[in-house]
Amino acid sequence: MRMYDVIMKKRNGGVLTEEEIREVISGYVAGEIPDYQMSAFLMAVYFQGMTEEETVAMTEAVAHSGDMVDLSAIAGIKVDKHSTGGVGDKTSLIIGPIVAACGVKVAKMSGRGLGHTGGTVDKMEAIPGMRTDLSREEFFRVVNQTGLSIIGQTGNLAPADKKLYALRDVTATVDSIPLIAVSIMSKKLAAGSDAILLDVKTGSGAFMKTLEDSIALAKEMVSIGENAGRKTAALITDMDIPLGNNIGNSLEVMEAVETLKGNGPADLTEVCIHLAGNMLYLAGKGTIEECMALAKAKIEDGSALERLAAMVEAQGGDASVILDPSRFAKAPYSMQVFAEKEGYIGAMDTEGCGIASSMLGAGRQTKDSAIDPAAGIVLKRKVGDYVTKEDVIAVLYTSDSSLLEQAQKKYVSSVRIQVEAPKKEPLIYARVT
Ligand code: URA
Fold first, then answer.
1. Fewest beta carbons within 10 Å, which of 30, 132, 145, 338?
2. Could you say which enzyme class this protein belongs to (predicted)?
């Protein structure tokens, strides 16, 4: 196979064979195909797309470029969940414990923040002492002992994706539906769970800004999962408004705890009940309605919160902050943000809100910069609320006071205030199977 011929075939709209795709991926990982040819190939895929068969073949090739985790040492059905990324999305910390409390195992590998979106691993590391780099044996032990464990991706999980993602990031080829599907599903297949629930976010804070694109991505990922013999479903959920009220790492852990105590914001609680219900459904625990009722019951009886505390303790974290979140270290500086004018909050540029939080130190400005775990934003008013110029719409937190002014400007410019009340949008748009 000549890489030149493969690039030309794809550029001209041809369909690649499974063997050609396998050779492209293995050649790239082995360093035999240079970045410039791979970049041209990715751009050809960006414009020409890929058939379902090509996408499945590329996902399998990327998944098999590293370890395929064997979870058989953990008894019972293992269910995974993946969010395509959002702002204020702390659902893994809530639904993992709920599902575990229902007797279904969750052995989950999560990522760090990407762009304006937060990552579960960064949130977990806001808990003092918490380890996310467990060895395979420790990971299995924690899942067997507590029903769940959430760790960072191990080095050799889909290494081709790591290399490809870095290249896509600098060649304007990230926002391609087949390439995103390959990237996400290769990691999910390699991570070894029997069933996979995908939370495909849609709206101004998501990578997919339109419902149409979100559904197309969900369909593509579900088809890859089912082709690989995993039970797979997707929910399309709203990311046009930040989820819940807290953005930032320890702030999000605190809100996850409140939600597990039954005191969480209504939007976050509802999305979590749907996600947990659908994970339990994939694990065969009943109808979706029964599974959602089961999920609610595990919040009400406190058993889901106990699971979170047990996981934190088993991974070396200080579980006392879970039982009493007021023990989290507070950011030394804060600033109230007032409404610019009177009216209804009509829309929020959720990506802008995520960027404002990141500017306060909750995200990384460069690949290697450190996270400020206490930094972030607490939303006091959201879309649909009527505000006057005296109303505080948000409070910013940071450990570096010099960051407040710019972040305040960014946040204010992300909130649109208008005369008429906005239309209420759904939290869950669709279920794709
Ligand atoms: N998340 C991923 O893991 N990969 C993508 O390509 C986009 C979001």
1. 30
2. transferase
